[in-house]
């Protein structure tokens, strides 16, 4: 939500001929002068009017304790970066596992639904078959067949056949 105006100055792109006082001052921050020790500028070609500022900026560099703190901060940043990357990887794997669980639940629900539908179809088919056997038994009874013969031909029980009479 930062809505302020900002200017980015690319010091390396400044012309070698420094015209304004600001351009001369910005030469103190030229990243081309970074020494082999990170974050430390090896100030060169310091304009005379800014020598006091340059001396002030170089002060902490000459302090061994300050340099050690910089190294410690770099190491901490590296450690925290690795930990953050590991945590991000674990979080991503966790999300993938959660997605797999959701997919498996959906598949399980679909399979259960298919099983339920198949069971309903089987029950309906069984009910139709039973109804057809009862109708056939009724027909046989009307044509004078004995209960024992009907039991043998339809597979119905005697009680079911006698209930039809």
What would your notes on this structure say?
There is one protein chain. With 165 residues, the protein is an all-alpha fold. Helices cover 65% and strands 0% of the residues. Helix 3 (64-142) packs antiparallel against helix 4. The radius of gyration is 45 Å and the shape is rod-shaped. The two termini are 88 Å apart. The mean pLDDT is 82.
Nearest-angstrom radius of gyration? 45 Å
Strand content: under 5%
- Net shape: rod-shaped
Distance between the termini: 88 Å
Question: Low-confidence segments, ≥5 residues, pLDDT <50?
Answer: none
Mean pLDDT: 82
Number of helices: 5
Structural class: mainly alpha
Helix content: 55-70%
- Could you state the order of secondary-structure elements as H and E? HHHHH
Instruction: State the total count of DSSP E strands.
Output: 0
Describe the biggest sheet?
Answer: none
Mind sketching the topology for me?
Layout: H1 21-26, H2 51-58, H3 64-142, H4 147-154, H5 158-164
Helix pairs in contact: 3-4
Key features of this structure:
5 helices, mainly alpha, 0% strand, 165 residues, rod-shaped
Q: What is shown here, in short?
A:
This protein is mainly alpha-helical and 165 residues long.
